[in-house]
Design brief:
By secondary structure, this protein is an alpha+beta fold. It folds into two domains: 49 residues; 77 residues, no CATH class. Helix content is 24%, strand content 37%. The protein has three helices and ten strands. The strands form three sheets. Strands 1-2-3-4 form a four-stranded mixed β-sheet, covered by helices on one side. The radius of gyration is 17 Å and the shape is globular. The protein starts with a strand and ends with a strand.
């Protein structure tokens, strides 16, 4: 639904929004969070969401990482991703030998790099819900 650089920015948005959604997903510093808003009590919260870790584990299982580009530093990879005129929704890149998922969120106009190591400890098996390992 939205993307923020800091949790403080997201909290300000949530607390000052006249009619926040009852539930939604937002990105805060490239980390998923759930928006929780109880209209009856006025409760407004941002809760850490682990969907990204499960998604990365699923991508690793279904499409093992084969980098389309390699970079020595994160900043180089980020500059490359930001410069793509029409990025694909996702692809693998390598940064200092570590696989990263380069993701593009067209609805937000947001581009992000996620280290595959975030999925360590998460296992996805076909036909079953993700399990934390």
């Amino acid at each position: 639904m939205a993307s923020f650089d800091t949790k403080e920015e997201a909290e300000t948005w949530l607390q000052t929004h006249p009619h926040p959604p009852a539930s939604a997903n937002v990105l805060i510093a490239n980390t998923y969070h759930d928006v929780v808003h109880d209209r009856a009590t006025g409760l407004r919260r941002l809760l850490r969401n682990r969907d990204l870790e499960y998604y990365l584990a699923e991508r690793r299982r279904e499409d093992p990482p084969v980098a389309v580009a390699s970079f020595g530093r994160f900043e180089e990879a980020d500059a490359w991703l930001q410069s793509q005129p029409k990025p694909v929704p996702w692809t693998w890149v390598s940064i200092a030998g570590e696989p990263y998922l380069a993701a593009y969120y067209p609805n937000l106009g947001h581009r992000a790099l996620y280290p595959l190591s975030l999925a360590d400890g998460y296992e996805v098996t076909s036909g079953e819900p993700p399990q934390q390992g």
